[in-house]
Structures are given as C-alpha cells and as structure tokens.
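[User]
If only I could read backbone structure tokens as easily as an amino acid sequence. I have put the entry right below:
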Amino acid sequence: MQPTTVFIMTRQYRPLFPGSTLLNEISANQKPEDSYPAITLDGNGPLYKQIERAVRAEILSGRWPAGHKIPSEHTLMDAFSTTRATISKALSKLTEAGMLERRRKQGTRVAQTSDSHAVIGFLDVRKDIESSGRAYRFRVLTSQEVVAGSTTAFWPAVSPGTRLLKLVAVHEGADKAEVIEERYINLVAAPDAAEADFEAETPNTWLLARLPCTRLRHTIRAAAATAEQATRLGVSRGSPLLVSLRQTWADDLPVTWVKLVYPGDRNEFVGEFNPLAP
C-alpha cells in the first residue's frame, strides 16, 4: 500500500480522507487548538498499527510536544474512516508505552515524560557527537538481507528462517569514525527497512517512528579490539573497547538487535538514579 496523508480538522469541518485533493478552508474564528497538522500513514499492516506509528512519529519529532492535546477519538475516527475500537487500540498501545496520558472527560495528551520513556536504555550517539561541536554523519558500510539461523544464534528471539536486514555502519564525528554499529532488523516487523535510506535517517530514528519499543534488553561489556575494529576506529589492535548490546521488541515481536562498539579510552557510560528528585 502507498502512504496516505490525512489532514485532521475539528468535527465542524469535513476532514480530508485518503486520496482527497481538496484542502478545507479554516475560518477566521477557528481556534488554533481546533486544527491539527497532517498525519501520514505508511500503508503497512493493520490500520491501528499505522495510526500508532503515525502518532508516535508526531511525538518523537517534537511536532506534538509534552502536554499537547491530541485529536479526540471521534475526530480520528472521522479522519481515518474507521471505528472507535481501532483508534482506541492504537492510542492504548502508546499509553502503555508511557507516551500518552488518557484521562476521562479531559482527552488525551502527550505525556510529560514521553521522551524519557521513548528512549530509555538507548545510547544517542548523534547527540553525544554533536554536543562536542563536531559534525555528525552516519555512514553505512554494508547492507544485506540474511536469514536467521546458526549465524544469528546470539539473537534467539527471532525464529530460524526469519528474513533479516544486516547493517554494518560507523557513526562519524568530523569525518572520524567514533562508533561502529552492527545491526540486524527483523523484516517481518519492519519490511520497509529493506529499502530505507539509513544514511538520511538513522535506524534508531527510523524504527522508533514506526514501531513502539515496549521491551528492551541492554548489556554493556568490555572487549579487546580486533584488527578490523582497530582499523575502523583508528586504535591499536587489542585496545580496550566498550560494547553496548541491545535488543528491542514491539509487543511480542522482536524488532532489532544492535551492537555499538566504542573506543574504551575516550568513552564512558553514565547513568543516574535519584528517586528523591522532584
């Protein structure tokens, strides 16, 4: 299916349905909070999943910030020509993920803690590099489809025979490799990944905009640089490395397995837990 864009208006305005080429005129006395930007569905899978991914993308992009009141269920029903059950199912998934707050008679708003819930456990390589004043670039070295089996035994969550996309890439700062990324994406969960341009949009951002991360397993360990790793990172063979291993799920569906490799002498991982903080 092709992606469709829907312009959502209040119930007193006729919404644009998929395929429509007419734009509704907003009257001069319409309040700003009564209109919403276009929402694009990707056309993949059940409608409730498409709506869930579209709303998630609005939140993660910052277009719908914390506290933003999202369109009502009735407005979304009209806009997407679907049932209340479909809309409710999509919003419930985002509520369970901590991205939305739904209150009876008060509507649904983007949760104040949505950002931290959405990315908890994720290492933001781009942010780290750009915060140091260096230009960031994600460069894909290899991309190929593989089949889960003995060579992917480290990811037992995927069944043998499952189609996967394998990526090897580097995160660069000022044209210097800072982190090596090895990633497998479950093409059952994200079939469009096979055609995605990950140099334009990193895999983390691309996946989070389309699938909820409802479960995450993160391991950090030490390792010694292999000859190949040493060459890519510009360190000596045998140098200490910090390795981040991460698996994510959307509901019960395994989505991705990622290994990030950092030079150990110029990186550290810091976490803080403060239950008494306001």
User: Anything to note?
Assistant: The helical segments are 47-61, 73-80, 84-96, 114-119, 125-131, 203-208, 227-233. The longest strand covers residues 136-147.
